């Protein structure tokens, strides 16, 4: 029905227009072409002046109205060190082009009015004027030279890569349909290598975990932080199609290209909190952020630095938002300390994901030594008898045999260190198995394993009198022997502090 | 039909008989055997005037489709909350209606609309519809030739364009939708059907359509160049050619040199899509699938694309510049100011257009050092462009300008070219481009400078040469409503986009609500959409005026209704095949003797007086 009404309206308007056309043709015939031309030139000459005034006033008024919403004006100053240079170049260009825009428009529409057709007026025969033409070739050329020189100066400074010996943080941003993966280098300050062929559901970036630089890298999944006043080099990559790493408030923009890492170097100079305080001074930003919730947070309170995608990447291109929070160095350090390494928290020990499975990594040796020291201390400090027994997590034997594997030496050495530190400590080493196989054989195997541990310690100089070895077989399970995982828990070596 | 032996009635006929060049046209009357019935006269015609009108009407068809698409995606941007269920009969499954009965535009289709709008407007309307129309109609008529150098290739040029249109049109109806990766079709998005629905069959058809279109552009271009170089009438030396012809000539040269590069670019893309090559692909994991493609570079495609893409914007704007120069001069009753400077700036712009392409790629990952050269050459273009603007304004100075639809649109063109050209100075400076690249500032810039401005040039040409094309005038009142409405409306649409662009709002966003930094422009977006709808309806006024006037417009009663100097106005009102019934007029002077020596105008066929200075001499 509505469609019908719309169609009817369109037809009606068309008929009206055609009739207007007919009527004006008829009056033109009555008045004669010359009169028509005179009226037309008079009317349109006047209209061109009206247009000129309305247009220029409209341009100025609208620019004034939106000044506090536009980057570079009002509170929306650049939040990066280089941004100010770009904004001022923008304003210099605006100054020159603004003059040209206003003067040429005044000339154009004023001449149209002034030299509108009038009967009997003769036009001037001016074919060219070399002097004028030289001037208006030279002046634009000089202005362009100024803009080019200033522009290229700014450009080459901004696009400069990190120089040797500079202090900076490198992070990595990877675009994929349809989000950003931000990777931090972790404690070593270096991003690990990647190989797209290693990509899996867990290892989304195809990180090569045989590269130790990857072990401490972390991937925050919500907002990401940067410290204020520190130079940042963002390494920008893409997994699938083109994306563009775009931080409007920092004047940062660079394509993310599959197979060709790009970069952008910038220094944040305002924390998120400082930026909010700036916005707070302007009435525009004291409006509610969500017009539907008049009592909700105001616009300045809801302000965040936002990361967007600025290269068409598919149907959800418009939704690749991430929040960047710029904070003080202390807050940044505190945040860094909380971030778990992606490798150790998500990948380590996973079959098919972790290429280092079955190996003890040197960083783990340190981590485990520290953890072991703590375990011993808790056991020593506790009064409860059940706390005096602990499982030795990192001692393994060859399959079906009592021989210790090479990787067990780290945990055994931790034990040696503990024995040397706490000279009064006497330990019982207990071997345990699961319930598969003959009970007698299990008993013998667990006994032999415990003895091997004790023997290792004696070989390292621990007095034999401070050690006992006992095999329990499958008699003391700590879990039901129903699944592989639970049986694995039951196959274990424990120590018990007998005296300290 | 008048023939050579008819009595000369007017001065031009007399002079043509006296001084004209006799190519014995009337002795080979086979011209008409190709126009024996409706089909050969109006459909498979080899006549340049019919082919030109075919380009024009096909262009109007595509302009309507392209503009309607923009209205649909503007509705989404201006009224994201609105119910679009009423569009379901037209768009079918692309409107997703939820349980509450509220219809939403599918984002995939939003991007398809944006992509098709760009492709259609840039190639089908502003290349074929503008340059195709006016090069065809005006080149033989203004240089004094019977037809194009090769009428057959000329007809092929139209039909290749027509086929390109058919393929593109069919792709709109694919179940996966037409191509949706932007008119620039950057890989890997355009190369990987896994990455987007539109990159499947839609992209294949886009490539086929583009290949056909390039064939059309090349056949046309070669013809225009050959005709202009070889078929000028006696006396028409290069410095006597109207600026329209200079513009069409340089346009054709740009097209012939740059379109093949685009063709090679999209062919390599086709290999990547269908044959497992890796020209543009490297280290890609799409949707969890690891591709075995390494070694290519997506940036290679961008170089190939913009090697055409940048000259392309001059292919669009140069014909408009030529038309505006001619129309302004005729209606101002005053010579175009600085004719030689105008020619030189056309040549300079044409040359520079080949060495600035990477200014579209400052932020694409090319070595930042390279950008230095492209910044310099890009900003140099401002100089010849400024010269042209000053010359147009000076042409109006001291004139006696008739303010009718053609001249008003020419004046509007100058305004648009200034406004849009000046913002190019911001974008061409790579340092400013860091912030403005791919924001609405760019959208505002190119829509004003090569969208609206080129349309204004086209409208000026249509209103001005309509009497030549159809033997009738278009209605002036409707023409003026069309002009002022479009002038004001177009600025209302595109001016505010500078502000959203300066605020950093990226282009090609289905919705700006996701971002705190952008979402407060909702009201402004609404304003823009309403203005766009207004402008759209004003173009319907034009379309009605156009088709109504073909049949019912005021009839042309004299050969030269505008009092213009160029040769097309010496042909009979109903110009037949071969353009001049007898001899071809010869050219005695340049095209811009308006207001000289007390004469209102002195056409090109009038011999120089004793001692008269020849502005077209060497």
Low-confidence stretches of chain B: 1-5
Widest sheet: strand ordering of chain A: 3-9-8-5-6
Largest sheet of chain A: 5 strands, mixed
Strand content of chain B: under 5%
The run of helices and strands of chain B is HHHHEEHHHHEEHHHHHHHHH
Report, as a whole number of angstroms, the end-to-end distance of chain B.
Answer: 38 Å
**Largest protein interface, residues of each chain:** A-B, 123 and 129 residues
Number of strands of chain B: 4
Average pLDDT value of chain A?
90
Query: How many separate helices of chain A?
Result: 12
Q: What attributes does this structure have?
A:
heterodimer, A: 500 residues, alpha+beta, five-stranded mixed sheet, four-stranded mixed sheet, B: 618 residues, mainly alpha, two-stranded antiparallel ribbon, 4 strands, globular, disordered N terminus
Written account of the structure:
The complex is a heterodimer of chains A (500) and B (618). With 500 residues, chain A is an alpha+beta fold. Chain A contains twelve helices and 13 strands. In chain A, strand 11, helix 11 (439-459) and strand 12 (467-471) form a beta-alpha-beta unit. Chain B has 618 residues and is an all-alpha fold. Helix content of chain B is 59%, strand content 2%. Chain B has helices at 11-19, 38-43, 48-78, 88-91, 107-143, 151-171, 201-230, 243-274, 298-332, 339-352, 368-380, 382-396, 405-427, 430-436, 440-470, 476-502, 522-552; strands at residues 95-97, 103-105, 285-286, 289-290. In chain B, the strands form two sheets. Chain B has a two-stranded antiparallel ribbon. In chain B, strands 3-4 form a two-stranded antiparallel sheet. In chain B, a hairpin with a 2-residue loop joins strand 3 and strand 4 (289-290). In chain B, helix 5 (107-143) runs antiparallel to helix 8 (243-274) and helix 13 packs antiparallel against helix 15. The two termini of chain B are 38 Å apart. At the A-B interface, helix 1, helix 2, helix 3, helix 4 and strand 6 of A face helix 5, strand 3, helix 9, helix 10 and helix 11 of B.
């Amino acid at each position: 029905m509505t469609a019908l009404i719309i169609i009817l309206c369109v037809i009606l308007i068309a008929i009206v227009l055609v009739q207007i056309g007919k009527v004006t043709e008829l009056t033109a015939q009555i008045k004669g072409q010359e009169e028509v031309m005179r009226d037309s030139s008079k009317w349109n000459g006047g209209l061109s002046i009206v247009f000129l005034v309305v247009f220029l006033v409209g341009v100025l008024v609208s620019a004034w109205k939106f000044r506090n919403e536009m980057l570079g004006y009002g509170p929306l100053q650049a939040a990066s060190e280089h941004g100010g240079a770009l904004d001022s170049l923008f304003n210099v260009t605006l100054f020159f082009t603004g003059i040209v825009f206003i003067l040429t428009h005044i000339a154009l529409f004023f001449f149209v009015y002034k030299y509108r057709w009038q009967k009997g007026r003769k036009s001037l025969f001016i074919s060219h004027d070399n002097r004028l033409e030289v001037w208006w070739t030279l002046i634009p050329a000089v202005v362009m030279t100024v803009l080019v020189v200033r522009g290229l100066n700014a450009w080459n400074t901004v696009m400069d890569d990190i120089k040797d010996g500079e202090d900076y943080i490198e992070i990595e941003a990877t675009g994929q349909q349809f989000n950003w993966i931000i990777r931090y280098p972790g404690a070593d300050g270096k991003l690990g290598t990647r190989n797209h062929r290693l990509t899996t559901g867990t290892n989304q970036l195809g990180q090569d975990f045989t590269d130790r630089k990857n072990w401490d890298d972390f991937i925050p999944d919500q907002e990401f932080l940067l410290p204020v006043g520190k130079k940042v080099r963002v390494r920008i990559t893409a997994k699938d199609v083109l994306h563009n790493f775009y931080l409007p408030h920092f004047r940062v923009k660079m394509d993310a290209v599959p197979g060709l890492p790009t970069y952008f170097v910038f220094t944040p100079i305002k924390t998120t909190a400082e930026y909010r305080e700036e916005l707070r001074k302007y009435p525009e930003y004291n409006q509610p952020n969500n017009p539907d919730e008049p009592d909700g947070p105001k616009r300045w309170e809801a302000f965040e630095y936002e990361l967007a995608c600025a290269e068409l990447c598919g149907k959800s291109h418009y939704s690749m938002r991430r929040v960047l929070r710029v904070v003080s160095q202390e807050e940044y350090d505190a945040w860094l300390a909380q971030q778990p390494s992606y490798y150790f928290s998500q990948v380590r020990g996973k079959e098919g994901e972790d290429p280092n499975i079955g190996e003890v990594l040197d960083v783990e040796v340190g981590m485990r030594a520290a953890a072991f020291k703590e375990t011993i201390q808790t056991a020593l400090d506790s009064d409860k008898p059940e706390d005096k027994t602990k499982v030795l997590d990192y001692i393994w034997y060859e399959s079906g045999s009592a021989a210790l594997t090479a990787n067990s030496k780290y945990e055994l050495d931790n034990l040696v260190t503990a024995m040397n530190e706490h000279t009064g400590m006497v330990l019982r080493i207990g071997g345990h198995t699961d319930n598969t196989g003959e009970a007698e054989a299990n008993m013998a195997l667990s006994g032999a394993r415990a003895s091997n541990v004790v023997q290792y310690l004696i070989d390292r100089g621990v007095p034999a009198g401070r050690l006992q070895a006992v095999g329990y077989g499958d008699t003391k399970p700590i879990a039901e022997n129903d699944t592989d995982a639970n049986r694995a828990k039951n196959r274990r070596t424990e120590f018990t502090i007998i005296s300290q | 039909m008048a023939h050579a032996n008819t009595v000369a009635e007017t001065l031009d006929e007399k002079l043509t008989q006296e001084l004209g060049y006799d190519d014995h046209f009337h002795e080979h009357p086979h011209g008409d055997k190709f126009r024996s019935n409706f089909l050969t006269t109006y459909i498979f015609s080899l006549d340049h005037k019919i082919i030109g009108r075919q380009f024009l009407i096909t262009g109007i068809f595509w302009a309507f489709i392209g503009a309607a698409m923009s209205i649909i995606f503007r509705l989404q941007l201006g009224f994201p909350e609105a119910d679009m269920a009423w569009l379901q009969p037209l768009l079918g499954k692309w409107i997703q209606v939820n349980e509450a009965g509220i219809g939403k535009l599918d984002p995939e289709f939003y991007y398809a609309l944006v992509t098709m709008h760009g492709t259609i407007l840039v190639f089908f309307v502003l290349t074929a519809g503008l340059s195709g129309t006016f090069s065809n109609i005006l080149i033989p008529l203004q240089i004094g030739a019977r037809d194009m150098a090769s009428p057959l290739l000329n007809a092929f040029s139209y039909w290749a364009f027509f086929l390109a249109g058919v393929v593109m049109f069919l792709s709109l109806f694919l179940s996966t939708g037409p191509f949706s990766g932007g008119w620039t079709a950057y890989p890997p998005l355009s190369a990987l059907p896994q990455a987007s629905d539109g990159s499947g069959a839609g992209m294949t058809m886009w490539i086929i359509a583009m290949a056909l279109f390039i064939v059309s552009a090349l056949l046309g271009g070669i013809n225009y160049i050959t005709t202009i170089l070889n078929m000028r009438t006696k006396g028409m030396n290069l410095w006597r050619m109207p600026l329209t012809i200079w513009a069409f000539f340089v346009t054709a040269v740009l097209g012939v040199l740059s379109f093949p590069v685009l063709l090679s670019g999209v062919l390599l893309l086709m290999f990547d899509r269908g044959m497992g090559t890796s020209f543009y692909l490297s280290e890609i994991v799409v949707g969890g699938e690891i591709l075995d493609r390494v070694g290519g570079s997506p940036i290679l495609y961008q170089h190939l694309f913009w090697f055409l893409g940048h000259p392309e914007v001059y292919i669009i704007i140069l014909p408009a510049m030529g038309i505006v120069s001619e129309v302004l001069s005729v209606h101002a009753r005053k010579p175009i100011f600085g004719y030689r400077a105008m020619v030189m700036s056309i040549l300079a712009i044409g040359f520079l257009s080949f060495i600035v392409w990477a200014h579209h790629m400052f932020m694409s990952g090319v070595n930042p050092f390279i950008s230095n050269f492209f910044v310099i050459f890009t900003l140099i273009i401002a100089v010849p462009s400024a010269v042209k603007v000053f010359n147009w304004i000076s042409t109006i100075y001291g004139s006696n300008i008739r303010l009718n639809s053609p001249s008003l649109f020419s004046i509007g063109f100058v305004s648009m070219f200034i406004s849009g050209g000046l913002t190019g100075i911001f974008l061409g400076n790579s340092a400013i481009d860091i912030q403005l690249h791919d924001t609405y500032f760019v959208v505002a810039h190119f829509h004003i400078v090569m969208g609206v401005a080129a349309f204004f040039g086209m409208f000026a040409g249509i209103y001005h040469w309509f009497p030549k094309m159809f033997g009738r005038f278009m209605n002036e009142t409707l023409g003026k409503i069309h002009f002022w409405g479009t002038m004001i409306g177009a600025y209302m649409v595109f001016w505010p986009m500078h502000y959203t662009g300066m605020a950093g709002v990226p282009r090609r966003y289905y919705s700006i609500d996701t971002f705190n930094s952008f979402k407060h422009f909702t009201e402004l977006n609404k304003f823009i959409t309403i203005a766009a709808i207004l402008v759209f309806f004003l173009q319907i006024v034009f379309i009605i005026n156009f088709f109504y006037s073909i049949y019912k417009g005021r009839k042309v009663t004299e050969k030269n209704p505008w009092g213009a100097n160029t040769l097309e106005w010496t042909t009979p009102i109903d110009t037949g095949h071969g353009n001049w019934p007898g001899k071809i007029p010869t050219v005695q002077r340049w095209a811009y003797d308006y207001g000289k020596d007390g004469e209102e105008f002195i056409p090109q066929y009038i011999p120089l007086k004793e001692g008269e200075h020849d502005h077209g001499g060497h």
